[in-house]
Amino acid sequence: xxxxxxxxxxxxxxxxxxxxxxxxxxxxxxxxxxxxxxxxxxxxxxxxxxxxxxxxxxxxxxxxxxxxxxxxxxxxxxxxxxxxxxxxxxxxxxxxxxxxxxxxxxxxxxxxxxxxxxxxxxxxxxxxxxxxxxxxxxxxxxxxxxxxxxxxxxxxxxxxxxxxxxxxxxxxxxxxxxxxxxxxxxxxxxxxxxxxxxxxxxxxxxxxxxxxxxxxxxxxxxxxxxxxxxxxxxxxxxxxxxxxxxxxxxxxxxxxxxxxxxxxxxxxxxxxxxxxxxxxxxxxxxxxxxxxxxxxxxxxxxxxxxxxxxxxxxxxxxxxxxxxxxxxxxxxxxxxxxxxxxxxxxxxxxxxxxxxxxxxxxxxxxxxxxxxxxxxxxxxxxxxxxxxxxxxxxxxxxxxxxxxxxxxxxxxxxxxxxxxxxxxxxxxxxxxxxxx
Length: 436
Ligand code: BJ8
Fold this sequence. Notes:
With 436 residues, this protein is of the alpha/beta class. The protein contains 18 helices and 8 strands. α3 packs across α12 and α11 runs antiparallel to α12. It is globular. The site of Double cubane cluster (BJ8) has 20 residues, from α7, α9 and α17.
């Protein structure tokens, strides 16, 4: 993955070249083992392979060229930041959540050791100078979701230009008012940064662009539910991960092409995974690139992941912004309402999420749910306890996993996941092997 032709660009971004080379080498090895080793992959995945192989190359070059042409780059850590507004201001939005252990020692000078891996990772990526996205950003948007993130941003602000949006913790009328005012403030902040006025015409266009991206992902989610399963869960996870930093229009076109191919596969009754393999759903914390550990373990255990209830998954694609809005005010309301439907575990109460998981599990006809919480993530770990109870009432088995980004627990995870798959497959009575 390392490419000498990009070295000058990385140096100009003040990256630590040797640490960065090390990261790309590990990422490349990981990708070969987890992705390229799969049999019978769809041709349309070649686009995703290419984008991933150029994750710190071509895409960063595009961002640099856009900056030279006067565009601003906005980095985010949460699906609450409305990309519609960012695009309407003529800026580019990129997701900065990081899914690998890096710069941990440095990160632990800003946040305590018992902070979730996602937070330590984005801080570590910055302090170790290995993230060209972070270094390309003109503004980084934080948000008041979990305590870990909102307090970490205070210390992180010593190192990056950060603007924090206040996300309410409940969904009462007064919370909606607060959120609407936060969206309006974000609009002003973007206009200040870009020196572009957000017009109704531009906003209408960007609402459609982001909705189109979500529609393509919704289509992919519907198609992947077929039996036999036409695409592996880890490939769909990759698609979702790349959706947060690729050019949205190009990405949508590529996913539509991938979906056409999947439809063709379904017509021919071909699948990457034989019918009868245990169908599982993942639910919980987002899995950022290159956090592929758990799906790899699951799909190596005679099961396939057919849905991700996560912000790098359906939580980010389920709802669209109402496109019938015409005036600026109507569109701001439509954005406000769409984003308030996000059922992050940071909300209380959050029964919507439990209901959404149950209906998703039923629609996908899953044999079980694996709940995934990052270690020290209290909102998701606590909600997992409630979730297990409600799933039990529906006779849907659940396995609760808490892990981080290290590979130390892979063998232990394998043992637990294999036992769970065996338990749920005795219900579905299946013994065919998943191709590795
Ligand atoms: S809307 S899920 S992207 S906040 S894993 S940092 S919650 S301690 S990521 Fe999230 Fe927005 Fe919610 Fe989605 Fe905190 Fe938990 Fe760490 Fe987390």
